[in-house]
Fold:
Amino acid sequence: MTSTAILLATFCILLAVSLLLQAIFLRWGVKWASGSVVTLRKALLVAFVLQFAALAIGLCAYLFEARLPRQGTATVLAELVLQIVVPCAIVAISFKLTFLRGVQAWLPTLIPGIALIAFSYLVLRPYMYEAFVVPTNAMAPTILGNHAIGACPRCGAPAYASPPDAWSVRQTDGLVMICSKELKPCNVLKFTESGGPDRILVNKLITPRRWDLIVFRLPSDPSINYVKRLVGLPGEELLIRDGAVWINGEKLEPPEELRGIEYLSSIEFGNQTREAAGTSPLKLAGDECFVLGDFSAQSADSRFWEMGAPGHPPYAVPESHIVGVVTHIYWPISRWRSFR
Ligand SMILES: [Zn+2]
Structure:
């Protein structure tokens, strides 16, 4: 099964369980409020309408806020009121109750909602899936942070980089971007600064493989999460030379989607040239990985870190720091992509 199928299955199961629980608690609520017994079928139908209404209200609030961002607090307040009044009214009308009895019948349906939130925070997020927003462009063009977009002067394909203020370059100098087709840097004179960050989904149950995109806790500061590509595996000897990575003396062939990528063994940093770790062969310990960013010219990755985790060299990501494997970009929808 692909990760997309597993993701959809998980989502559908959660939705079905929450519907069923809501229906059971709604039946109980109606009995509590009015003494009448309703069929599970009718309770299920009303629970379905309640979920649909909640989704519609949430969506309206989202769209409203996107159009009028300054009305933030008012929108949140209005949404909260609607999220209470509308379901109570639906329950009252569906079961022919007064509004107050409708509120009473609706109250128990909050219990499965709270249980679901608890499940998300205690099980789903720590052990199965977690979502992240990517702030930087070290993984561009594969994963984007807040970015500027231009056209590659060589081939015309979209090129990406962090907005110029992040690098304090003058507009007239152009911007070093990465071409999404060639995966090589290019200097772009005209660009727009409109792109927001990608939101990614990380699966914590699958075992990371070479070339996977992984999220890990930064070795020198575990409170910071990074996303990079897993390139060197535990126990391997790694060398970066001629734009390629060599493992145990053999040149690695990157996967098709990375064709053309060049891994630089030095970068310009201010007026200095900084040499990468891996320029001469290095040996990874049995629990250490080596990670690289796709925007090789502007990626702070295993090559250039100065501090590592305690007991490890600066370039090593200890296996225990790996959070999970990136399986999807899920937002914005236009950037939807499945990786594994
Ligand atoms: Zn190009």
